[in-house]
Amino acid sequence: MLIKYLRLIHAFARAFWILWIKFPRLSRERKLDEIKNWSKNTLKILGIEVIHETSLTHIETSPSPLMLVANHVSWVDALIIQSIQPSIFVAKSEVRSWPIVGSIATGCGVVFVDRGSPSSARRMVDDLSSALHNGYCVAGFPEGTSSEGSTVSLFHANLFEAAINHHIQVQPLAIRYTNPNTGDLCLKAAFIGEIGFVQSLHQVITSTGILAKVHAGDLLSPQGHSRRTLAHLSHRSVSSQLELLSA
């Protein structure tokens, strides 16, 4: 277990080196590659194997930016999505104060939002719009909170305003964590209740293995939708995909 922690410390140190030393000299494409490779490596260190239940080629090769939305179980969700398609993420403002990870998130351009503040939500839409305008994919978890991963709570609509404003397609994703030996739902990664980040990290890294299954739904066009109807359509897609992963 000590070796796992040492490898994770090395990964965190490498993240700081990449973000503050390498990034200023890299093109956007190289930056995204660095984020993708770092995320894949960190998942391996954590003992999380990611299985793609559907083809994700269209996401990785899309010539236009996408908005990726998924159900929310854990902070690990962001690593999984970054390993597929590096994106500008939306995260709750508390993440900024997490040890080490908060600094890494800030360096990656994460958009922090106070969900109880209308002005913060407005700034979030503006920041995502700017990212999309500059050709970046954006990603978030519209539930606004994490769960055990067996169901999907209703989606908040604010996130989808940026997709509508810029005519960006939405890519729904479902993520389910399972026990690799039994196939049952695994709660080791679930970031729920009063658990803190450090405790959650320890819970993940000391597990005997976690299998993360990812299922991609059909791309959703924002044309003709309000942010509420697009949120509802995305929620229905993610819920249906999660049921498939649970079957």
- Overall shape: it is globular
Number of helices: 9
Give the helix/strand class. alpha/beta
Beta fraction of the residues?
A: 5-15%
Evaluate the radius of gyration: 17 Å
- Main sheet: strand order: 1-7-6-2-5-3-4
**N- to C-terminal distance:** 33 Å
H-E order: HHEHEHEHEHEHEHEH
Mean pLDDT: 95
In total, the number of strands is 7
Question: What does the main sheet amount to?
Answer: 7 strands, mixed
- Poorly predicted ranges (pLDDT <50, ≥5 residues)? none
The portion of residues assigned to helices is: 40-55%
Question: What is the element layout, followed by pairings?
Answer:
Blueprint: H1 2-22, H2 28-46, E1 48-52, H3 57-60, E2 67-70, H4 76-84, E3 88-92, H5 101-107, E4 111-113, H6 118-133, E5 138-140, H7 160-165, E6 170-178, H8 197-205, E7 210-216, H9 227-246
Provide structural commentary.
With 247 residues, this protein is of the alpha/beta class. The chain is built from 9 helices and 7 strands. The protein has a 7-stranded mixed β-sheet with strand order 1-7-6-2-5-3-4, with helices on both faces. The longest helix is centred in the first third of the chain and has 21 residues, at 2-22. The protein is globular, with a radius of gyration of 17 Å. The two termini are 33 Å apart. The mean pLDDT is 95.
